[in-house]
Design goal:
Structural class: alpha+beta
Radius of gyration: 13 Å
Number of strands: 6
Distance between the termini: 37 Å
Strand content: 25-35%
Largest sheet: 6 strands, antiparallel
Mean pLDDT: 85
């Protein structure tokens, strides 16, 4: 395996920026659905992607950053087709 998406103590296999971004967005959406009725639920956290020995950060919009440099911007879903 070439990499992992890490959120807190949990790790999921991820072999590319696109895979990690999509997984992060899925986990974020599941978290928001699960905590929709909880008033004091903490915001969903950022994640670390370890890929081929390098470390990157993912944030709420699924973008992948290497320090202050954007390295992957996921395609946005079209709201109106």
């Amino acid at each position: 395996m070439s990499g992992f998406l890490i959120i807190g103590p949990n790790r999921w296999p991820a072999d590319s920026f696109a895979t990690a971004s999509k997984l992060y967005e899925t986990l974020r959406d599941e978290y928001h659905e699960a905590t929709a009725d909880v008033r004091a639920a903490p915001p969903f956290t950022s994640a670390t992607l370890t890929l081929y020995g390098r470390h990157y950060r993912l944030y709420g919009n699924g973008r992948v950053w290497d320090g202050d440099r954007l390295v992957y911007d996921p395609p946005q879903m079209e709201l109106f087709a």
